[in-house]
Amino acid sequence: MQTTQSLYTYHIVGQGQTELISKSAECLARSFFGIDVSGKWVQEPMVGQLNFEYEDLYDFIHGYLTSVAGQGYCAVAMDEQDQVVGALVGDTNAPEIIGEDIFEGSFSDMNILLSVLEDVDKRFMEDFQARHGREIADGELLHLFMLGVIAEHGRHDIIKQLGAMLIDKASTEGVKFVLGEATNPKSIRVMEKYHNMTRYKDLGGNYIVYEYKNHDRLKGIPSEVADGTYILVKEL
Questions:
Q1: pTM higher than 0.85, yes or no?
Q2: What top-level branch of life does the organism fall under (predicted)?
């Protein structure tokens, strides 16, 4: 019997691998928009609640991948037909807070999604500075920004392998810790179970979380689907 491990091969996408970057962006965009997995609809909750055009989201993801692929933290799983069926992408740049709307037209709702991520990132950075007396430096943190799996079989194995590739690489390259924003309970469970990450508590002992119920456009997300976006971390 063929095991799920033998169904896929795993690769780091390098700068200039334009075809592989495009396939990775397609995998991520499809997973965010939603896919049917064994009769169950799986979708990123904020994308499901807001108004996005597929091409806009694909272009945004493609642009990000193109800009960070050279850092070596874009890992993909490929099936026997050389299609990308899973992708985990990050970078080692210090988090950047833009603090204003930058998208217009059919992609204007991306401002809402990014504002949620910036809110939790900003609070994490403020807490980090309070603890350590300094700001986060480039190369100190691996930010796991995007995870998408469109394979129907072996999904958990794919997530486990992709995370291990990037976290092990970060550890050997002197990165101090890993950070991720989990937008739903499934992401939290995945990060906790497979990557030994934990929900971050600030100096006051409180989780850093953006609760969807506090936003007019996101409060329609059912609480049983997701209650908010959390910061998760892992020290290396």
A1: yes
A2: Bacteria
Residues 6+ apart with CB under 8 A from 160: 194
What CATH number is given to the structural domain containing 74?
Answer: 3.40.630.30
CB-based contact 75:88 (threshold 8 Å): yes
Q: Are 72 and 14 in contact (CB under 8 A)?
A: yes
Cα separation, 47 vs 24, in Å, equals: 18
> Which helix (H) or strand (E) element contains residue 32?
helix 18-33
Pairing of strands 177-182, 141-149: parallel
Q: Kindly state the tokens that stand for 61.
A: 């993801």
Pairing relation of β-strands 209-211 and 198-199?
A: unpaired
Q: Could you give the CA distance from residue 162 to residue 110 in angstroms, rounded to a whole number?
A: 26
- The residue segments making up the domain with residue 180 are 4-235
Find the length of the chain. Answer: 236
> How many domains does the chain fold into?
1
**Residue 76 in contact with residue 157, Cβ under 8 Å?**
no
Based on its alpha-carbon atoms, the radius of gyration of the chain, rounded to whole angstroms, reads 17
Q: pLDDT band for position 3 (50/70/90)?
A: very low
E strand spans, 92-220: 141-149, 177-182, 198-199, 209-211
| Cα–Cα distance measured from residue 101 to residue 97, given in angstroms and rounded to the nearest whole number | 11
